[in-house]
């Protein structure tokens, strides 16, 4: 299940739902363990590949390439910059504020519905309003083949 909370925008004076995350982030060890449970490789092997993946991806992006991981999406470099009014004042180094990585989830367009779907958005996603009193199931059970009550976010 995913969580949202009511948010208020002072500028537009409207309330809107905003997706929130709870608890601590799932780390590489937890992802490696869940993937190992779903495959024939060990957690150590999965973790080794995941650890090296960021470096390999950054090398390709440094060459001006985008990186597409099937079933996941595409990664490419982006820039946060400040503009100048006159072209003669253009200076990349002084205008650059930061380099970022843009991620676009893989999108499919099934002929049956014609509606775009994102690969990383579960088809059975259930949204509930966040209540601090709520307790959630142990996230280490999600995605494991040994059971647990959670829905599998990877499949």
Main attributes?
three-stranded antiparallel beta sheet; disordered C terminus; 155 residues; 22% helix; alpha+beta; HU Protein, Chain A; extended
SSE topology:
Elements lengths: L1 E8 L4 E7 L7 H10 L5 H20 L4 E3 L3 E9 L10 H4 E10 L1 E2 L8 E2 L8 E3 L26
Parallel strand pairs: 1-8
Antiparallel strand pairs: 1-2, 3-4, 4-5, 6-7
Short account of what is shown:
This protein has helices at 28-37, 43-62, 92-95, and strands at residues 2-9, 14-20, 67-69, 73-81, 96-105, 107-108, 117-118, 127-129. The protein is an alpha+beta fold and 155 residues long.
Protein model, in words:
With 155 residues, this protein is of the alpha+beta class. It has one domain: Irregular (HU Protein, Chain A), CATH 4.10.520.10. It has 3 helices and 8 strands, in the order E-E-H-H-E-E-H-E-E-E-E. The chain has a 3-stranded mixed sheet with strand order 2-1-8, with no helix packed on it. A 3-stranded antiparallel sheet has the order 3-4-5. It has a two-stranded antiparallel ribbon with strand order 6-7. Helix 1 packs across helix 2. The longest helix has 20 residues. The two termini are 14 Å apart. The C terminus is likely disordered.
